[in-house]
Each structure stands twice: as C-alpha cells, then as structure tokens.
UniProtKB/TrEMBL annotation:
SUPFAM superfamilies: YefM-like
InterPro entries recorded: Antitoxin_Phd/YefM, YefM-like_sf
Organism: Acidovorax temperans
Region entry Disordered, spans: 1-30
Transmembrane segments: none
Domain of life from the UniProt record: Bacteria
Stored Pfam families: PhdYeFM_antitox
Family to which this protein belongs: Belongs to the phD/YefM antitoxin family.
Protein name, as recorded: Antitoxin
Amino acid sequence: MTITTLSSREFNQGASEAKRAANNGPEFITDRGRPAHVLMSFEDYQRLTKQRRNIADALAMPGIADIEFVPPRVTIKPRSVDFS
C-alpha cells in the first residue's frame, strides 16, 4: 500500500490522477501544509469501516427471493402502570 500526499491545489489540477493513485493506497490532501482530507478507494473505505449493508441494500440483492425467512410471531401485551 502506497500513501501519497498532495496539496489541495495539486488535487484540483489532477483529480483523475489522484483517483487512480487512490487505488494503490490512500491519498492525503493538505490545506496550507496540514492534512485535511483523505481520498481512498471505496473498497478500502468499506474494509476500514467494516461497513455492512443496510436492510434496503440486502433486500435488493439478486436472488433474495430464494432465501426463506419466517420471523417468529411476537405477542405484545400491555403492562400495568406503576405510579409509585
């Protein structure tokens, strides 16, 4: 993994090159010499955050109709109120 640093001006002038370089590792983007942003591939971001799919994405998966899901029945009963 290669980590590269570039200024925000360099990033603005060469965004395409920065995106390509982000496939090899994170790109640190600086403002006035101080790290301000990080550009990385989406796969690296998901791996870093261990991001899971949300329920809408999971339900939109191809072949989802083949998965059997039978949730258990739940009985909700009212409880008495305790005023003490």
